[in-house]
Amino acid sequence: MTKSKRKRAKSQDAIALLKADHRQVEKWFKEFEKARTDGRKLELATDICNALKVHTTIEEEIFYPAFLDATDEKDIHHEAEVEHNGAKKLIAEIEASSPDDDYFDAKVTVLSEMIKHHVKEEEQPGGMFAEARDSDMDLDQLGEQLAARKAELEDDADDSDETPPPRGQKERSQPGREMKNAR
Ligand SMILES: [Fe+2]
Ligand SMILES: [Fe+2]
């Protein structure tokens, strides 16, 4: 049911599009908290990881560079990128794991906390989106670019969905293996 209504964001501006992504993932994180079966947990975690990979990619490829260009707000920009990197490591660990792993729920919960913090930084007053609105960025144009790139990345992900290897990520060798001695 999660895949059925695919929103082909028509002409949202860049910020509306990115915020809609945030709301979608928040909803899935909430559902994960309530999920009772491993199957449902895996489904939600997969949706969350895929959505976050697409979202962080379109931000990094399109929105963040345009933001830095227009505002010269290096601190906001760099912190956002560093937070993305932290999230991506955890996403890779979740993808290399499964609900029968003792640490699976903890990883998803910590990812949800990281994302909550990051989204707040983007959306809060004085944060990245507010600064973007105050700048001369062409948010409609960027919205179109983001939507197009997002659709492209989602199609790629759908193609690799057809074959079900749950942890075979194309060009990634051994992502989150360094986990065993968590002290
Ligand atoms: Fe975002
Ligand atoms: Fe972000």
Structure description:
- The protein is globular, with a radius of gyration of 17 Å.
- Residues 1-5 and 168-183 have low confidence and may be disordered.
- The protein has helices at 14-34, 38-71, 74-95, 104-123, 128-134, 139-162.
- The chain has 6 helices and no strands.
- Helix 1 (14-34) runs antiparallel to helix 2.
- The chain has 183 residues and is an all-alpha fold.
- The structure holds fe (ii) ion (2 copies).
- One fe (ii) ion binds next to helix 1 and helix 2.
The percent range for helix content is 55-70%
Discrete helix count: 6
Principal-axis shape: globular
Overall pLDDT level: 88
Low-confidence stretches: 1-5, 168-183
Q: Radius of gyration, rounded?
A: 17 Å
Structural class: mainly alpha
Q: H/E order of the elements?
A: HHHHHH
Number of strands: 0
Regarding quaternary structure, how should these chains be classified? single chain
Strand % is under 5%
Please describe the biggest sheet, giving its number of strands, its sense, and whether it closes into a barrel: none
Small-molecule binders: fe (ii) ion
Determine the N-to-C terminus distance: 39 Å
